[in-house]
Amino acid sequence: MAPDLKEYDEEQVRLMEEMCIVVDENDKRVSADSKKTCHLMTNIKQGLLHRAFSVFLFDSENKLLLQQRASEKITFPDMWTNTCCSHPLNTPSELIEEDQLGVRNAAQRKLEHELGIKPEQVPVENFKYLTRIHYLAPSDGQWGEHEVDYILFIKANVDLNVNPNEIRDFKYVSPDELRAMFADSSVPMTPWFKLICNSFLFKWWDQLDAIDKVEADDAIHRLGF
Question: Taking every annotated instance into account, which residue ranges of this chain make up the domain Nudix hydrolase (predicted)?
Answer without folding.
Answer: 48-195
